[in-house]
């Protein structure tokens, strides 16, 4: 059976929970569109987050990887378009690292683009009544760090992962209650959005394979 790796991130910046992991952990062992969902939590630590992601990819051997992170202040399900080769931390990570203007991969390209069908996903989510958008920035903190590390891995000729990308989600309501005026999204809505995202991405890949087979 095909496998999809979905990751969340541990809490950071004084939060007791991280909505990405609160939702992602509920997807564990779910079978969706002919694929088994495998979940992992990543540390909110520069360097170690990418290391943990690479270990998970090696263990799971997934066809697709979707990484999810918290973006407090955002109001919708944000599909990231691009990761840039820079660590520039506004706050320390969970091991008190605070890199400023440092490259993620010394000899890597300036940026990588998501290999998920980002606009197809956004359109599908909106048609299902879920607020969603394409985001043009994943920031310069650990989320961007993870996304760049993932896409750098996918760019290697030996990598068998077909697709990968990053999604930012808002606070959960219980977090937003401590941040007056901040938007939030329920676990139920985010769960639905993630399941639909995975289904759309898998079916897009399947359709592509069928189309390629018809031309040979």
TrEMBL record:
<feature type="active site">
    <location>
        <position position="143"/>
    </location>
</feature>
<keyword id="KW-0788">Thiol protease</keyword>
<comment type="similarity">
    <text>Belongs to the peptidase C15 family.</text>
</comment>
<feature type="active site">
    <location>
        <position position="168"/>
    </location>
</feature>
<dbReference type="Pfam" id="PF01470">
    <property type="entry name" value="Peptidase_C15"/>
</dbReference>
<dbReference type="InterPro" id="IPR016125">
    <property type="entry name" value="Peptidase_C15-like"/>
</dbReference>
<comment type="subunit">
    <text>Homotetramer.</text>
</comment>
<dbReference type="InterPro" id="IPR029762">
    <property type="entry name" value="PGP-I_bact-type"/>
</dbReference>
<dbReference type="InterPro" id="IPR036440">
    <property type="entry name" value="Peptidase_C15-like_sf"/>
</dbReference>
<dbReference type="InterPro" id="IPR033694">
    <property type="entry name" value="PGPEP1_Cys_AS"/>
</dbReference>
<comment type="function">
    <text>Removes 5-oxoproline from various penultimate amino acid residues except L-proline.</text>
</comment>
<protein>
    <recommendedName>
        <fullName>Pyrrolidone-carboxylate peptidase</fullName>
        <ecNumber>3.4.19.3</ecNumber>
    </recommendedName>
</protein>
<feature type="active site">
    <location>
        <position position="80"/>
    </location>
</feature>
<keyword id="KW-0963">Cytoplasm</keyword>
<dbReference type="GO" id="GO:0016920">
    <property type="term" value="F:pyroglutamyl-peptidase activity"/>
</dbReference>
<keyword id="KW-0645">Protease</keyword>
<keyword id="KW-0378">Hydrolase</keyword>
<dbReference type="InterPro" id="IPR000816">
    <property type="entry name" value="Peptidase_C15"/>
</dbReference>
């Amino acid at each position: 059976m095909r496998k999809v790796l979905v990751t969340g991130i541990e809490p950071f910046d004084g939060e007791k929970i991280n909505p990405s992991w609160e939702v992602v952990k509920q997807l564990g062992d779910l079978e969706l569109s002919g694929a088994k969902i495998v979940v992992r939590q990543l540390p909110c630590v520069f360097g170690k987050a990418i290391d943990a992601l690479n270990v998970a990819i090696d263990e799971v051997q997934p066809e697709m990887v979707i990484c999810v992170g918290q973006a407090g202040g955002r109001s919708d399900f944000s599909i990231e378009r691009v990761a840039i080769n820079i660590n520039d931390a506004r706050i320390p990570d969970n091991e008190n690292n605070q890199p400023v203007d440092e490259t993620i991969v010394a000899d890597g390209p300036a940026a990588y683009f998501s290999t998920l069908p980002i606009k197809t996903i956004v359109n599908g989510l909106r048609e299902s009544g879920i607020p969603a958008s394409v985001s043009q920035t994943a920031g310069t903190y650990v989320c961007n760090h993870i996304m760049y590390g993932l896409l750098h891995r996918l760019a290697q000729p030996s990598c068998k992962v077909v697709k990968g990308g990053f999604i930012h989600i808002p606070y959960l309501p219980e977090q937003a209650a401590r941040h007056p005026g901040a938007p939030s999204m329920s676990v139920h809505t985010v769960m639905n959005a993630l399941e639909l995202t995975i289904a759309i991405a898998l079916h897009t890949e399947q359709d592509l394979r069928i189309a390629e087979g018809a031309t040979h």
